[in-house]
Design brief:
FAD/NAD(P)-binding domain; 459 residues; alpha/beta; 10 helices; 5-stranded parallel sheet; 2 domains
Length: 459
């Protein structure tokens, strides 16, 4: 086992889950392989590692993160709780169900700080290219040490791709947008609502990012927010100041024209048009090619690349479940790499993939999406020793969350849920979400009486 080498590409939630899976085996007294995790940022956390930068970072690499200021969890924290590290254990007290980004990042770091994860990670290092030798059955990785401007290569037996798929934007073109006088950006480069105060804002897309950015900009003082959809509207009951219109046909100056014949002047445009699965470090025969969906083809159990199972993909699905799903995937891939889980024949793998794809083809609404992903996670957990959790109960919370958003998009974050791990009921936040303009960890963890005083001073 000592001679076996494993490369993990990315130290976000999926990459960290893979490290944690190996550490869990090590605590049980098992001998684990040599693990090296390559992370191009200077800290772990992936998307949760917020940066003010857009475009490229300090070493000229494309910025990975799409996080922005004032981002609060848009789903209950009880739905993403790690099975082996509860919110109670981390915060030592109940907190609300919809924490802001710095609070969730603190929780992610809390679990990983209990481990020796940093010993496995080479920060400021990016993978440029990868090859596989059929004779030696080893990968050669060509790597750049960004800080020291040094290129080198190393060989590995397995490669785990944990780079995520929300960092390379889809950027569509509309006639006349090249002459639009205001700001035009993708949600990937959105860093907060401040620049859109008193502005008429157009968001193109009907994804969760359009919904969340639109509501945030409304909350922080945009004059108006218009969401333009391609196929179907989000269809929520929007407050006055937010509206939906069909897809833009073209622009004339600062005016956008829509398919229903209407038009409106705007100060800025944000493309909330999704992301591409992009793996520039992989040759085409090893590259996962898929759209964003709940079950990408060519991955056995949603993890093992069928034509080369020594290449493992984590977190490549569209997601309702997140952290706990990445964990279940990482635990099973660990078992495979350590020889404790055997893959069936390629024919059996294909049959299993086709059964899941057939099941997925019959899913046609968000609640059925939740059930499908719950079934997928249960399938993974029963094959490994990842600590079990009540997947169905989490699914019920997701469905309630969907209903809460339909009931009132501005107040759903004030709702509370009960942890399926500890039974702890979340506390109401000391300030209603629409009135809370400070997303800092310090403000969030403030006691209620102090928070009330601070709010009174600010007002």
């Amino acid at each position: 086992m000592k001679n076996k080498r494993i490369a993990i590409i990315g130290a976000g939630p999926s990459g960290l889950a893979q490290i944690r899976a190996f550490e869990s085996a090590k605590k049980q007294g098992k001998e684990i392989p040599e693990i090296v995790c390559f992370e191009k940022q200077d800290n772990w956390g992936g998307m949760w590692n917020y940066t003010w930068r857009t475009g490229v970072g300090k070493f000229g690499e494309p910025i990975h993160g799409s996080m922005y200021k004032y981002l609060w969890s848009n789903g209950p924290k009880e739905c993403l709780e790690f099975s082996d590290y509860s919110f109670d254990e981390h915060f030592k007290k109940p907190i609300s169900s919809y924490p802001p980004r710095p609070v969730l990042f603190d929780y992610i770091q809390g679990r990983i700080n209990k481990s020796n994860a940093r010993d496995y990670i080479r920060f400021n290092t990016t993978l440029r290219w990868l090859t596989f030798n059929e004779e030696t059955e080893k990968f050669t990785l060509f790597l750049d040490d960004l800080k020291n401007n040094k290129t080198y290569e190393e060989k590995f037996d397995y490669v785990v791709v944990a780079t995520g798929h929300f960092s390379t934007p889809n950027m569509p073109f509309f006639e006349g947008i090249d002459e639009f006088p205001g700001a035009v950006m993708h949600a990937h480069d959105f860093r907060g609502a401040d620049q859109f105060i008193d502005k008429d804002l157009l968001l193109i897309g009907s994804s969760y990012s359009a919904e969340d950015i639109g509501v945030q900009c409304y909350k922080h003082g945009s004059k108006s927010v218009t969401l333009s959809y391609r196929s179907n509207p989000i269809g929520l009951s929007w407050p006055k100041g937010i509206e939906e219109r069909p897809l833009v046909t073209h622009f004339e100056g600062s005016k956008a024209f829509f398919k229903d014949g209407t038009s409106k002047e705007f100060d800025a445009v944000v493309m909330c048009t999704g992301y591409q699965h992009k793996f520039p470090f992989l040759p085409s025969y090893l590259r996962l090619k898929t759209e964003n969906n709940l079950y990408p083809d060519h991955l056995y159990k949603g993890i093992f690349f069928q034509t080369q199972p020594k290449l493992i993909y984590l977190g490549m699905q569209d997601q309702y479940y997140t952290f706990n799903m990445f964990d279940a995937q990482a635990w099973l891939s660990r078992d495979y790499m350590m020889g404790d889980f055997k893959l069936p024949s390629k024919e059996e793998q294909r049959k299993d993939i086709d059964q899941w794809l057939e099941k997925y083809s019959k899913v046609d609404d968000p609640k059925e999406d939740v059930d499908f992903q719950a079934d997928y996670i249960k399938d993974l957990i029963q094959m490994t020793d990842y600590p079990d959790f009540n997947v169905e109960k989490v699914g019920e919370m997701f469905k309630q969350w969907l209903q809460d958003k339909e009931d009132n998009i501005l107040t759903y974050r004030d709702k509370t849920f009960r942890s399926v791990l500890t039974g702890t009921m979340a506390e109401e936040h000391h300030t209603e979400w629409m009135d809370e303009m400070d997303d800092s960890l310090e403000r969030y963890l403030m006691k209620e009486d102090k928070a009330e005083k601070k709010t009174a001073v600010l007002s």
